[in-house]
Amino acid sequence: MNGDPIKSFGLVIKEIRKSQGLSQESLATEANLDRAFISQVENGHKQPSLLTIFRLADALKLSVSELLKQVEAVLAGN
Amino acid sequence: MNGDPIKSFGLVIKEIRKSQGLSQESLATEANLDRAFISQVENGHKQPSLLTIFRLADALKLSVSELLKQVEAVLAGN
DNA sequence: TTGTAGACTGGCGTCGACT
DNA sequence: TAGTCGACGCCAGTCTACA
């Protein structure tokens, strides 16, 4: 029930970040991104570029394919 | 031997497209993208956004996670 | 700690045309 | 068929700041 890949991506990022007990601030630092931008992405207000997706995956310590597999799962219907 | 995710992504797209006997033109049509932009991406001159990655994966008839798994394989050393 | 806002720079993605 | 170029509009991503 979530046809939007951008919103789904944000949801997954937020879930994983919280599950690791990280703040947006610390995630932003690890991924070399701006904290305000992390917030926009998590709420589906901005879509990241390829490089940013890699940076986020690295910061969350999982592979890009594993990250996007979770996005696909959310897209498939949560 | 290829540390650049953007170039690796381009290589994978080009390989898969050729393996399916598609032209850049037809891939661009399927993915609702510009042919010139497909060329830039395949040669690592431009990096796609999240939405564009999904469009490309769909046009190549494979999942985003599978697509990026192949990118990771190239990154890992071909 | 997070969401959001405004202003800003650089780059995504389109289009037309030429090689 | 594919690579590239210039011009263009729009958005990714940064920074500062406030609730």
TrEMBL record, chains A, B:
- Quote the SMART domains the UniProt record gives: HTH_XRE
Domain (HTH cro/C1-type) spans 13-67
Q: Which InterPro entries match?
A: Cro/C1-type_HTH, Lambda_DNA-bd_dom_sf, TransReg_Diox_bact_type
* Database matches in Pfam families: HTH_3 (PF01381)
Question: Which CDD domains does the record associate with it?
Answer: HTH_XRE
Q: One GO term of the cellular component aspect?
A: cytosol
Keywords from the named record: DNA-binding
What GO molecular-function term can you cite, just one? DNA binding
Protein name per its UniProtKB record? Transcriptional regulator
- What is the protein's species of origin? Hymenobacter amundsenii
